[in-house]
Amino acid sequence: MSESVRHLYVHLPFCAHRCGYCDFVTVVGRRGQHAAYVKGLLAELELEREPLAPQLETVFLGGGTPTFTEPRELERLLAGLPAGDEVTVEANPETVTPALAALLRRSGVNRVSLGAQTFQPALLSVLDRVAGPDDVRRAVYHLRDAGFDNISLDLIYGIPGQKPSDLDADIAEALALRPEHLSCYELEAKPGTRFTHAHGEELQRQAEAMEGYFACVVETLVGAGYRWYETANFCRAPSAAEGRDLRSRHNLAYWQGRDYLGLGIGAVSTVHGTRWRTTPRLGPYLTALREGQRPLRELEPLPDSVRRAERVMLGLRLDEPLPLAPVAEELDARALSRLERLGLARRTSFEGGAGVRPGECEDALTLTTRGRLLGDAVTADLLA
Ligand SMILES: C[S@@+](CC[C@H](N)C(=O)[O-])C[C@H]1O[C@@H](n2cnc3c(N)ncnc32)[C@H](O)[C@@H]1O
Ligand code: SF4
Question: Does domain 7-254 sit in CATH 3.80.30.20?
Answer without folding.
Answer: yes
